[in-house]
Amino acid sequence: MPPNEGLVHPKEYDWRDSNVELVNSELDHRVKYQSATTEPAWNNGKIGTEPGLFIWRIEDFEVVPWPKEKYSQFHEGDSYIVLNSVKAAPKQSDNIEDGEGEKDKLIHDIFFWLGSHTTQDEAGTAAYKTVELDEFLHGAATQHREIQSAPSDAFSALFPRVKILRGGVRSGFTHVDVNETPQHIDTLLRIFKHPSPAAGRDAILVHEVEPTWKSLDEGDVFVLDRGDKIFVWQGKKCSPMEKMKAAQVVNDLTLAKHVDVEVLSQNESRSKIVVDHLGGQDVNPLETTFTAEQPISSRSSQDREKKLFRLSDAEGQLSFNLVKEGKAINREDLDGNDVFLLDSGKGIWVWEGHAASRAEKKMWLRVLQRYVAQQEDAASLSFAKVVQGNEGRGFWTAVEA
């Protein structure tokens, strides 16, 4: 079914026949903005006025500031909102049509990050509050949906040293594991490289994995915290950067408690002590090939060809058509009178022109949902919405890559 099927039939989707007439109207935005001004998380005097990185976790339907010392840590049982505000470079602040720019303009990117085991109420609250934060910023932010298993390049650029931990805060509807792991339960951390084109290099990630020998991979480094002792297990094909990151992780762990640390290479016969502790008593580490799937998707952007679509009602009815595909796509293909969908291969972007009609602005989400439903593996892609004149580096990189 084409993503625009049904959009071209005025009788079925005529906004004047329903209570959604006010969606994207001036009144609609005023009401949402007023609601946003009552949210304590956005009213700290810095949001929207100062550049910086801000993170909140959803806790029992509330937006709670995340401690700065934990800014690179996320629990797979939680949902988070991340705001990154930076001063616009001249090219970023330029309007695509008339070249208007503001000297001290801020470019905002809002990410709502969904852990693989987050609850539906936490995810829903994060999505709703992301829209509210965008209203607080007067609709100038780029909104991103991030899922744990397939982070976007833009998110990876912010957190090239991210640590994913098990557990999460207690949910409003459903109780999950608490976020503090009891000391008597083994913790196994995997340190591995993950491609991050936006960061210009591989990101080194830390991900808590199941404490079993089957989680080991000879290309990575693992930190086993037994409570009374910490082991570092270096796969025979691991990189120097992974070893360095493991040393940093161990340093962080030993700041809170003083325990012995032992570093073992897979090529050493003594490395079997780690394998044995993880249940592999019958496994010989000198003769075994350890392979485990990475907890983060490494799908290449070359899996699908880049495509640009236009959502327009210029001819009296809404239509959704392919404009261009392949590497020939550039910023000149965008028209401020319409809404465009860019499938970059690794993520999906919706670009909203300043002069787009209310119907086009209202229907972009439905079109996006139908488009994603038709594409194989698209459900695991990140997606983002950006407004003309407030594009960040991530969007232009996706357009011109």
Automatic annotation (TrEMBL):
GO molecular function: actin filament binding
GO biological process: actin polymerization or depolymerization
Gene3D superfamilies: Severin (3.40.20.10)
Superkingdom assignment: Eukaryota
GO cellular component, one term: actin cytoskeleton
Annotated SUPFAM superfamilies: Actin depolymerizing proteins, C-terminal, gelsolin-like domain of Sec23/24
Domain Gelsolin-like: 62-155, 204-254, 329-396
PANTHER family the record matches: SEVERIN, VILLIN
Protein name as annotated: Putative actin-binding protein Fragmin
Organism: Aaosphaeria arxii CBS 175.79
